[in-house]
Amino acid sequence: MTDAAPQDIHIGFLIYPGVTALDALGPAQLLSLVPGAVMHYVWKDTAPVAADAGYTINPTDDFASCPQLDVICVPGGFGQVDLMTDDVVVEFVRKQGQGARYVTAVCTGSLLLGAAGLLDGYEASCHWAWHHQLELVGATPKKARVVRDRNRITGGGVTAGIDFGLTMVAELAGEEAAKLVQLSFEYDPQPPFDSGTPDKASAETLATSQAMVGPVVESMADAARAAQAKKDARHAAE
Question: Which residue in the list 66, 73, 107, 126 is annotated as catalytic?
């Protein structure tokens, strides 16, 4: 007797102009190895989407054709600012999140989950520079590479997406499967510099980083407040 084929697990990543590709493609590479995984890269249409690194990603599904996902993941990126108050995008994320087994994000993607009302009363993580903004969209900030609160699983900034991806592989296929994936990708980080968090970086490096992202941090805060106002208005009308 042969083992039954694994059931399909529909895993979807929101892809949008200005997305930080590693936020999406890092965990997607790992999750694609889950038995039964059916990967979806979703945007409003299926034309190539320009990521923030200058190359394009080809969506596999548009919003209309995307099936109900078992796992929805929202990656971060500077292009996310415009999405926070985009009714079409927010409604797609909200509806998918309501039906998904797991509602997830990497980096600033958590803020878009919040804009869709999917993190109200949930702990979540985010990139360190935007972490405090989680409160603006109803979430409870928690500093960790990966934060799980019931079926909400969120990762910190960019490279935390790999830790997030392994966490999700374990959720979907078991710890041993996740360990095998970790070994297969030789994930044993030993960075050449110990400067990966504000607590570890020098004062000069931190100040330079804050100056670089400062305008986008401010823009995202404005967008988060506007998104929350829309969310509050929607709740009042219900």
Answer: 107
